[in-house]
Amino acid sequence: MALQSDFTIDASKFRPEAVGNEVRKLNEYLMDTMKKGSKRFEVGAAKYREMRARGETVFPQAVVLDRGRNFSIPSREGEREIPCPVMTHENGIEAKAVFMHIHGGGFVVSSEKETDTVLAKIADLANVVVVSVGHRLAPESRFPAELEMRLICSSWAESHLVMSTYLQLTASRPSFKFSGLIPNYGIFDLSFFPQVHIFKKRANLILDQELMEHYRNAFCPDMSLEQLQK
Length: 230
What we know:
The radius of gyration is 20 Å and the shape is globular. It has helices at residues 21-34, 40-43, 45-53, 116-126, 145-156, 159-172, 194-198, 209-219, 225-228, and strands at residues 72-74, 81-83, 86-87, 97-102, 128-133. By secondary structure, it is mainly α. It is 37% helix and 9% strand.
């Protein structure tokens, strides 16, 4: 009698013919749009962040909502504070939980203020207080400094960041309890899974191996493959 797993994946859903026309058109649009913009490693991290904040990259300028409340907590460095803007329910309804948001950006770009519209929806629909962590960015802050900063925020209250924070917290503070994790679009192995290396891509994807390697090397410079796998 053959054994059957409780968790199965329908491989047919991942075949090219399973992709609908609407998704194909969106992918074409995204790739055409990416042709027009500069990449972070071409202009430098600091300049690219400034360009992105002004809406001068292929990504639209972020919308910052007035309903967000600026807040900060002290860091271990003493003089520096960690920005953690807070988003609450639009109608002032008492929250049921705290939702800690760690923004993406490949360790290098983005900020705690670039996803206000999404976080406002989460606050309203899930009835939670949303805390968006303004973590430091590479290459100015490299591993492990960025992880240490996130631990401070988590013990007070992007998916690789979410998972690494969770693993460090549960190991160092066994009594610390999470209700759940949402590690969307994460890179959980910085040496990259095989599919990253063998993927036959077209030009100008939003995220490809070249860009991923630049982001990784900014965060973990001069690290060997064996060190990245630990």
